[in-house]
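Dear Dr. L.,

I hope this message finds you well. Following up on our conversation about the binding site, I have prepared a predicted three-dimensional model of the protein together with zinc ion. For your records, I am including the exact sequence and ligand specification that went into the calculation, followed by the structure tokens. Please feel free to forward this to your student if that is useful.
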Amino acid sequence: MHRTEARGEVAQKLKLCPFCGALNSVERKSCYNCLWHGVFEFDHAIVSASVNEIDPDVLFAMGVGLPAQNWRERLSERVRLFATAIKHKVSYVLSIRRHTPV
Ligand SMILES: [Zn+2]
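The resulting structure of the complex is given below.
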């Protein structure tokens, strides 16, 4: 997934408060920031422009805009750590068995 596509997807889930300019979830009834509960700005171009002002590192921290390769790398890292953990656990259990007098 490209960074711009991910941002576009984020923008689709957001609306802009016309009163304070805060980005809000489309599901919100009132602005989280100023409690405005009138008409919100849903225009995709305008909301996207606001999303584009967000620091890419912030979006990255929220899990948005991760390049596919990174995502796969992270997943394979998780799988590797999980496999290592299991291996350790198995050898730990085996070592207990070995040292436990029958
Ligand atoms: Zn507001």
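In brief: The longest strand covers residues 14-16.

With kind regards,
A. P.
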